[in-house]
Amino acid sequence: MSVHIPYTTQRRIITFAPQLRIASNGFCRVTKYRRCRVCGKPDWCGFTADEQTSICMRVSKGSKGTSRNGGNIFHHNRLFLVASLVIARKQAPPAIEIAPIEVRNAVYQELIRRSPAVKYYSQLIVGPNGLLSRGLRESDAQNYGALPRTHKERAGLAHTLSKFLKVRVPEGVGRSTHDAIIGVPGFYQDELGNPQLWGRDYNMPLLVIPYRDAQGRIQACQLRLHRNDFRAGEKKYRWLACPFPFRGTSSGTPIHFTFKPADLLPGKTVVITEGALKADILVSLRPKARVVATSGVSCSHTEIIDAVRPYNALIAFDADCRTNPAVARQLARLIAGREQEIARRQCSTSTKVVCWRTYKGIDDAVLANSPLETMTILEWFATLEGKILAEVKRAWNEANYHPWVSLVKK
Question: Is the sign of the CA dihedral 196, 147, 295, 218 positive or negative?
């Protein structure tokens, strides 16, 4: 039986349905407004603009294959939202090319100088959730910035930084000084062409966490929201990027270096972990550590593998890699990619997994002086069981990586 939808209802659905955010590869990220059709979650996963295909990062049962980023591919027979047909036909807004690294670094450095985290000392530095409580030193806090909580204050900061950049645009980067700040992730223009920074009002200031490249330049930033400014199920950490409104651009998912590879000899040891702040805290607690961080367990595997190729690697993902099959799958993918690259290039470097008990991240474990255990790939594999073991095996089978064969023979 067909169901008639009145014309007025159709208009309402089309008017208020949020626009799809279509990436250059034709895929869209799920949001709280359009959740994954497979797992129902608002993050990690993606789907095609016509909504005929979902890429789920959590559920593998019933999938038709694996995507390049390790997600599980699901094909759907029909669309289920009335508004989807209309939304899918909309053209994506024209992409804005990301600004050269020299411009981004100059803007972010000046942002941190003009709006440092220490300006909001009681909210961001001290207290139960402050940087000092995480294990950073007072001097380390100078490396972080803050966004004022109101849109009006941030607009003033954007105007100041735009004026700064018109004077300080590095020579040879080929950008117009009129709109040089456009293309720096986090900045966009309003309807009148005025520079703006980030979005809505918040209850508390937002911590700005720089992501530095192999030369120490700030290539992008993440924001950490105060616990009063996000609901359960929403992300606390978000990229400082406004890719869609009025000539904004995406930051991508770059990796973070706490050291300069040019200064570290091949054969030394590098730690791989999640999140730039966690990496910085680990170095603050263990100054001899050399750490590379990805923004998430499913992000930038190729970049991580390239960055640590000359070094022995200690992978220290959060403890949920032992309890969450989706996270364990991503760890397995990174291990497989790294080990296959070592074999292909006939490197003599090693890969090990760092484990600990009770605490979520390695930074929390080190701060609490919790013992760390370093395992070889086979030793780590031997500790797995149940769904975690099955998911790791599945990921390695798909990658044609079979280290457990030698373990079984023993």
Answer: positive
* Helical segments of 50-115, H only: 82-89, 101-114
Range of the domain at 281: 256-409
Last residue of a domain, one of 209, 239, 269: 239
> What are the backbone angles phi and psi of residue 209, rounded to the nearest 5°?
-110, 115
Whether residue 298 sits in one domain with residue 263: yes
Residues 121 and 23 in one domain: no
CA distance 133 to 131: 5
Tokens of 184: 């720096």
Residue 52, CA distances (Å) to 46, 73, 88, 150, 378 in order: 11, 11, 11, 39, 39
Is 389 in the same domain as 275?
A: yes
Residue 159 banded pLDDT, cuts 50, 70, 90: very high
pLDDT tens track for 37-66: 888 887 778 888 777 788 888 787 777 777
Are residues 122 and 185 located together in one domain of the fold?
yes
209 and 262 both lie in a single domain: no
Same-domain check for residues 207 and 276: no
DSSP for 51-67, written as a single string: SSEEEESS--TT---B-
Contact 392, 332 (CB under 8 A): yes
Span 369-408, pLDDT tens digits: 999 999 999 999 999 999 999 999 999 999 999 886 654 4
Residue 93 domain-assigned?
A: no
Predicted pLDDT at 128: 84
Give the 3-state secondary structure of residue 34. Answer: coil
**The model's pTM:** 0.79
Q: Look at phi and psi of residue 26 and say left if phi exceeds 0, alpha if psi is from -120 to 50, else beta.
A: left
